[in-house]
Write a structure and sequence with these properties.
The complex is a heterotrimer.
Chain A (H helix, E strand, L loop, with lengths): L2 H8 L17 H16 L5 E2 L13 H10 L5 E6 L6 H14 L2 E2 L8 E5 L12 E5 L13 H9 L4 H14 L10 E3 L3 E3 L9 H4 L5 E6 L4 E5 L5 E3 L26 E5 L6 E5 L2 H23 L1
Parallel strand pairs in A: 2-3, 2-4, 4-5, 5-8
Antiparallel strand pairs in A: 1-9, 6-7, 6-10, 8-9, 11-12
Chain B lengths: L11 E10 L2 E11 L4 E5 L6 H8 L7 E8 L3 E4 L5 H10 L1 E4 L3 H4 L6 H11 L5 H14 L16 H13 L5 E5 L7 H18 L2 E6 L2 H7 L2 E6 L2 E7 H6 L4 H8 L5
Parallel strand pairs in B: 3-8, 3-9, 6-7, 7-8
Antiparallel strand pairs in B: 1-2, 1-4, 4-5, 9-10
Helix pairs in contact in B: 4-5, 4-6, 5-6
Chain C lengths: L3 E14 L5 E14 L3 E5 L6 H8 L7 E6 L7 E2 L5 H10 L1 E4 L11 H10 L9 H14 L16 H13 L5 E5 L7 H16 L3 E5 L3 H7 L2 E4 L8
Parallel strand pairs in C: 3-8, 3-9, 6-7, 7-8
Antiparallel strand pairs in C: 1-2, 1-4, 4-5
Helix pairs in contact in C: 3-4, 3-5
């Protein structure tokens, strides 16, 4: 074969069997491996299960763990929602959603209550989840004690023996340094009264939503090669002290767009003078509230007009 | 008061302990008993096996032969190496203490002094910040560290202060047995004196039993009731501290005692 | 009515110097000595003849080369010093034998008052005093031995030889024990303080203690002794 024809046959050809990408990108064996890890994780709530994390078409730090979990779970009948910091339309969320559209062809949505599978980076939607839904969290550092104890051999022993004094040392330090527990995201929790887990860098505001959630919650860390899970209706308690208990964040403002005063608010600087407004972080939730109030305003107008 | 009161059982019984490293005998057939409140010095030169003995008795190393029996609070005499890892670790964090030669090995250097002292209590389920802090303050006072330093990390402490913090961290759970590996070496002489005095007082006030490894015979004389002398992995002599130092019987002990420079 | 407190039978002591080709230094041989409560036995003999050695053997500071030493406390079981466990010997020293050696060996930082008070704080719960109460008693003793008050809060390392000796005496005698061993307790003392020591010895005897002492000043020896023992009789002839 001469050089030109070699190059020609090297070009990508969508119809060639050798180039076809499997449903949801991962091969079936890999999916089975990940599902086995997920089953173990569900059987031991909060316990970090090692898994053979694969090379994905994005670098570490961009959600490869969450993507692998979603890829192992997703089926043709699923409806997928992807959010990043609560929003459906950031670059990351758009890219990941498009990735799954191309490799699975499943239906996607921005509406929380219509999704069967939700992959998220750093937030839990305001709309309560239901039985049968699956939440997949992207996790950068699965080990909650890593800052204080970098030796994995040691943290494994601590988890195995439920020796969690160190975790409270971290909280003690916060109080000593700042007068209160200063951790505002990735706030450690105890799952099913046993394992201490990092809930991923969600704001502590979201921690109560983890507790006895009707949905299945899965956590994937691609770089660290760990999967863990919180099965439906499992207790998830945020750590604290008797005299410094866990507290969620509160704002003195409400959402400028929809008026909610019970959702997690992002602060947006609108001009160079430093004017700021507060907007719901959960874009779907905010839009739904806006259209609801628009509907009721319409109805009120119609009623008046009659 | 009868001269021979009913003798309580030994707190610790070491029987025929041996340890090899790749064919080399590091420890051979070491045996001794320790009673509550006794301070036992283990002396010898580098390579004598004294640190191996300490670490094997403290369950930080696995022996190749022999056993270490400890009179636990809840279950009586137990073979320390036959315990589950979980029980052994719990023992090490509650009824035992271990003071390292270099304080950095026995402290969390990046964490405040208060948290260092309170960690064992947090590990045992103490969940009241106010009380943890108050306990930490008491212990800092007891080891003569300025209470105002409670929120400072030991990185900012002097060597003597770090050692005293290490001691406080170990004693907060009122252990009955403390292991010490050359706790005063590397410290200035005046700092050493202060530490020795403190250890003596703590031993008396708390009825602590102590096994202290040292190459400094003066430390042994001042602190220890009893002494064992190690040479090439074996205990060559044992007795009351002043007995061994003033009337050494074994050739090596005589060499050791006569080699100390006079001041 | 006096009781037998100390019994030495056929006691011998020699030192073996392994690093001088096993050279043997005999010091004492066939010591037979009984001491009863209320006695004050003064050991006589030229220096270097084994007087201190004898006391150290009783105190279990030196090990026996041969023979037996038995100490029977007034309300207790006899203790065979040569074969007793270390724990038993420690208890014997705490409760039964007080030993004033020629050296004051203490941890550098401890003030004189506390050095003297400390023996009263040791012992089983019930008989041990609090530090404050012990200090009260210690003050009386320091006054009696003419230690100036300005020295009470200082560690004795900087004291004169005589002052150190008086601290040594105070801290040993402050706790009443049945058997007292005194090795040259007046060597560095002036006449006045030596007299105080003589009085202390008489007081100890009258409360029922037994005293065995070495005194370089023969006059003092004669003043306190109920009998004399010449140690050179136990010295093996080279």
């Amino acid at each position: 074969m001469n050089q030109t024809s070699m190059l020609a046959s090297a070009e990508p050809d969508a119809s060639s069997d050798a180039n076809e990408i499997n449903f949801a990108y991962l091969d079936e064996r890999t999916k089975r491996m990940i599902r086995r890890a997920i089953l173990k994780a569900v059987a031991i709530p909060g316990y970090q299960v090692p898994f053979a994390s694969r090379e994905m078409p994005l670098p570490y730090g961009w959600g490869t763990g969450g993507i692998q979990v979603t890829a192992a779970m997703i089926g043709a009948q699923d409806v997928l929602k992807v959010i990043d910091q609560g929003s459906d339309d950031t670059v990351n969320a758009v890219n990941i959603r498009r990735f799954f559209e191309r490799t699975t062809g499943v239906q996607t949505t921005t509406r929380t209550h219509l999704a069967t599978l939700i992959q998220t980076r750093h937030r839990i939607p305001e709309t309560p989840l239901q039985e049968g839904q699956v939440m997949v969290y992207q996790v950068p550092v699965p080990e909650p004690m890593q800052r204080l104890e970098p030796r994995e051999a040691e943290t494994r022993a601590l988890h195995g023996l439920a020796e969690y004094g160190l975790m409270h040392v971290k909280l003690y330090e916060d109080i000593a340094r700042h007068g209160h527990i200063a951790t505002t995201y990735d706030y450690p929790v105890q799952v099913n009264g046993r394992y201490i887990m990092s809930p991923s860098p969600i704001p502590k505001f979201d921690n109560p939503k983890l507790h006895r959630n009707p949905a299945l919650q899965l956590f994937g860390a691609g770089r660290e090669k760990r999967i863990y899970a919180v099965p439906p209706y499992t207790s998830v308690e945020s750590l604290g002290f008797d005299d410094h208990p866990f507290e969620i964040q509160r704002w003195n403002a409400s959402c400028t767009l929809c008026g909610s005063n019970s959702s997690f608010l992002d602060e947006v600087i609108t001009d160079d003078a430093g004017t700021r407004m507060y907007v719901c972080s959960d874009s779907d939730y905010c839009q739904a509230r806006q259209s609801d109030s628009a509907d009721s305003a319409d109805k009120a107008n119609q009623a008046e007009a009659v | 008061m009868k001269a021979n009161d009913v003798m309580p059982l030994p707190l610790l019984s070491v029987q025929g302990l041996s340890k090899n490293y790749a064919g080399r005998v590091a420890l051979q057939d070491a045996s001794f008993d320790l009673w509550p409140g006794e301070v036992l010095a283990v002396v010898g030169e580098s390579g004598s096996g004294k640190t191996t003995l300490l670490n094997t008795v403290a369950a930080r190393l696995q022996p190749d032969g022999g056993q270490v029996l400890y009179d636990t609070r809840d279950a009586g005499l137990q073979d320390v190496h036959a315990m589950s890892q979980a029980r052994r670790r719990l023992l090490a964090r509650t009824d035992w203490g271990f003071v390292h030669q270099h304080a950095a090995d026995g402290l969390r250097m990046e964490v405040s002094a208060g948290a260092n002292v309170g960690e064992r209590l947090m590990g045992l389920g103490q969940r009241n910040y106010g009380r943890l802090r108050a306990t930490a303050e008491q212990w800092l006072e007891r080891v003569e560290i300025d209470v105002a330093r409670i929120d400072d990390a030991p990185r900012t402490f002097s060597g003597g202060m770090r050692q005293r913090l290490q001691i406080a961290r170990n004693l907060v759970t009122q252990p009955r047995l403390v292991f010490m590996d050359e706790p005063t070496s590397g410290l200035d002489v005046s700092v050493q004196a202060r530490l020795l005095d403190m250890l003596r007082q703590l031993n008396q006030q708390m009825g602590l039993a102590v096994i202290i490894v040292t190459h400094d015979l003066a430390v042994a004389r001042l602190l220890a009731h009893r002494m064992v002398v190690m040479y090439r992995g074996c205990i060559v002599e044992t007795g009351l501290t002043d007995q061994v130092l003033d009337d050494p019987q074994h050739a090596y002990t005589q060499l050791l005692v006569s080699s100390v420079l006079p001041t | 009515m006096s009781t037998l407190l100390l019994s030495m039978k056929g006691v011998s002591k020699r030192f073996t110097l392994h690093h001088q080709n096993g050279a043997q230094i005999p010091v004492l041989d066939q010591v037979n000595l009984d001491v009863r409560t209320g006695e004050c036995v003064v050991l006589d003999g030229p220096s270097g003849q084994g007087k201190s050695t004898l006391l150290k053997l009783i105190y279990a500071n030196y090990r026996l080369s041969g023979g037996e030493i038995t100490i029977t406390p007034p309300q207790g079981e006899p203790v065979d010093v040569g074969s007793a466990a270390p724990r038993a010997l420690l208890q014997l020293r705490r409760e039964t034998i007080g030993y004033v050696s020629q050296f004051l060996r203490v941890i550098p930082r401890v003030p004189a008052l506390d050095i003297v008070a400390e023996p009263l704080t040791e012992g089983p719960a019930g008989s041990a005093m609090t530090l404050e109460a012990a200090r009260e008693t210690a003050r009386t003793w320091l006054q009696r031995l003419s230690i100036p008050e300005r020295l009470w809060s200082l560690p004795p390392a900087t004291f004169s030889g005589g002052e150190q000796q008086r601290i040594n005496i105070a801290r040993t005698l402050i706790k009443p024990r049945p058997l007292l061993l005194l090795d040259e307790p007046t060597a560095s003392l002036d006449g006045k303080n030596a007299d105080v020591v003589i009085t202390l010895i008489h007081e100890a005897r009258s409360r029922g203690a037994a005293v065995i002492g070495i005194f370089h000043d023969t006059a003092i020896g004669r003043a306190v002794a109920t009998r004399h023992v010449d140690v050179s009789q136990f010295r093996k002839n080279a």
